[in-house]
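Students often ask what a holo structure prediction actually looks like on paper. The answer is less mysterious than it sounds. You provide the chain, you provide the ligand, and the output is a string of discrete structure tokens encoding the 3D arrangement of the protein together with iron/sulfur cluster.
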Amino acid sequence: MSLKTGIISLAKSHGVDLVGVANVSVYTNYIQEVSARLKETGATGRDYMFCEDAMTFFENLSDVRRTLPSAKSIVLLAVYAFDTEGDYRATEQKLQGKTARIYTYYPVVRQIAEHVAAHIEGAGYRAVQGQHIPLKFAANEIGLGLYGWNGLLLTRDFGSYVALRAVVTDAELEPDAFQPPVAPCEDCGRCLKACPTGALYAPYKVNPALCINPLTRKEDDIPQQLRRKMGNWVCGCDICQEVCPMNRDLKPRVPDPRAEFDPSHHASHRTLGGLARCPDLKRLMEDDRMLVMQRNAVIALANIGTEQAWHILRHYKDVDTGKLGEYLAWAIDQIAERIGIQNKLDSGST
Ligand code: B12
Ligand code: SF4
Ligand code: SF4
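The corresponding structure tokens follow.
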């Protein structure tokens, strides 16, 4: 059995859904596009959640040999990431927050990549697994999927719901050339219309300063006009995927490969109504290290905007004297304005 065949069968035995091999190259087109994107948006490293300057990050990403100087091939791995908790309808009424689906599968694809890297090393080559290459770009090059207008890799069988990872190796593996799917982007444009913040400002182009995904994950203050557009997303955002016809007929993945991982990593719905009762979120509200999630929960409750949400927020306004104060006051005002609850309370009618 060739090394490549061995890699494919090992990855499949660990639950990978797509596997392909790309050549190592310095991605010149990619870095040109990145540079234009950064000029167009003025986005900084901080907007992208990078520790370094944005251009430095992308330059490092674009040159695979910085990861492994002797690198010859890239093994691309994709895990289907559409779960049984994937039905988000009516979560607003249920005081639930939404978590982006693909994130919850990162531990799964990472573990598979570790097995593949160990296998290659066992055959006498060097192998480094990680996210340190432009994953969509490399996958698009070999036709594992193609770029959709939503800026994501669309695959034939799994739509955009795939978590990607790579193993860079100095083993010479034969590159693949798959037949990519055909996406109806030209006649569609749903993702561009649906993006609530305008982060998806043109086909294929995302401005990270406006994207709900980094907004929910950074400690930076979130401007009020953006808070209102975040809906009940508390970790990431899937709106530009939810509306995509390429994802319409997907079935939840069973069995759930995440079962062996810590369930807190794959809580797709987070119970915001439990701010007062649920031990999970009560703990969040009392734990300063979880300030970002608390802030997101407050914003989500404001956007859910029901009387029940208002009461939960009031409860925490009374106990919270810390950094969340401004968010709580804003959230309470938002709901009061919308449903006139303050007036009702003032006139003693509740
Ligand atoms: C930086 C980054 C972000 C940034 C910027 C997003 C972006 N689209 O650039 C932020 C923080 C906003 C982000 C958000 C999300 N991300 Co992200 N992100 C990355 C990261 C680290 C690098 C992506 C990158 O290189 N961006 C720079 C831009 C310039 O590159 P690009 O998007 O490939 O752009 C190319 C196209 O625009 C193309 N292009 C331009 N014009 C044209 C014209 C045509 C005709 C064509 C075909 C192409 C084309 O050229 C560009 C350069 O090659 C990758 C991980 C990795 N190591 O690759 C994950 C990754 C792309 N993210 C991922 C995910 C899941 C998300 C979210 C869905 C998370 C969530 N649910 O909240 C959102 C989705 C937002 C969106 N619509 O893209 C997955 C995507 C999986 C998939 N199916 O594609 C990845 C691959 C991580 C992973 N391990 O799986 N992300
Ligand atoms: S929603 Fe439509 S335009 Fe956007 S990526 Fe999907 S098919 Fe393309
Ligand atoms: S993830 Fe949400 S905010 Fe970001 S581009 Fe997609 S729809 Fe817009």
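The chain has 14 helices and eleven strands.
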